[in-house]
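DM between two lab members

TW: hey, do you still have the Transcriptional regulator, LysR family entry open?
JB: yeah, one sec
JB: this one, 297 aa:
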Amino acid sequence: MNRNQLEIFRVVAEKKSFSEAARLLHISQPAISMHIQALEEYYGTKLLDRTTKRVTLTPAGEILYKYTLHLLSLMDKAQRDISQAAGIIKGKLILGASLTIGGHVLPPLLSSFYRKYPDVNITMEIMNTEKVLERVSDLTLDLGFVEGEVTTGELHVEALARDELVVVVAANHPLAGRGRISWEELATLPLVMREPGSGTRKVIEERLQAAGFKLPELKIVMELGSTEAIKGAVEAGLGAAILSKWTVRREINWGIFKQLLIENLPIYREFYVVLNNNKFHSPATQALIQFCREHLS
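TW: and the structure you got?
JB:
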């Protein structure tokens, strides 16, 4: 029996599914089965009942699940206390980030962090805000980075930086030299938007609603699942887009895009770091959060 087997057992017990546990832990389903079988052989009893629809704990499995939570907590505390006593910043961090902050804000910051803490191995997965929050909640991410308001009492949420969303058009667009645009003019433009569920789209909807406008009033001609795809569509002349300044800095500096501000409708949002209060936060996790505070504020 080892910690890895207990972690696998915990996820299977909580998700009631071998396939879902395999997806969350990024290992194969046969590997999940092998580790569970090893635990059952170790304890000499069946721990899980499997049907075609779900997995349930046996009475012995219920007992082991309770002890598993306690054992994992003790192991985490031991790791934290030893690392702190030795002044060690090392280990593996699994991060989740929504597309804007993960694709444009964090990469240079993580490069600087690695130069300062070369013994910390970081894996960053990019997904939409909803998925980041889900993965932080189910403890399969050490921490998450998202944009836009986060409303959940289960997670610790801390603002790290402010972002501004602006309208961008191709440099040869008829409105490219304007600098500003009215809501009425924006509503007539073909608009390329992110998909529902993305952090960018959510903050746009909320800001418009607060100002008395509605998203359906806009002429959305296409919804795309990545900022890079949207930028490609704008550059090709398909229409305008509302994007984070972080994501279009190069295109604006190179003269590919022109930026337009919506009159009397500034659109701001915060970048947040999100943690699960029920998860152990290693010295490496704490060091990364502090690094972000210092370099993004």
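TW: got it. The chain has three domains: 3-85, 88-160+271-296, 161-269. Residues 161-269 form a domain with the D-Maltodextrin-Binding Protein; domain 2 fold (CATH 3.40.190.10).
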